[in-house]
Structure prediction request, 55 residues.
Amino acid sequence: MIIKGFPLIKFQSAKRIEDLQNGLIYMNSLEWYRKHESENGDIVVGDSFEAKFHN
Prediction:
């Protein structure tokens, strides 16, 4: 496997690394980030209407 560029890798358990190599990606839900932003008063990244459909 050839990796181009400068990837940033957070060290995890061997299981998580093997899962990543097999194409399984772990991530938090969009709801988790919305809650995190509102609890921490972060108004710079994203907004309350992010990923929502408006008519």
About this structure: Helices lie at 14-21, 30-40. Residues 5 and 51 are 29 Å apart (CA to CA). The radius of gyration is 16 Å.
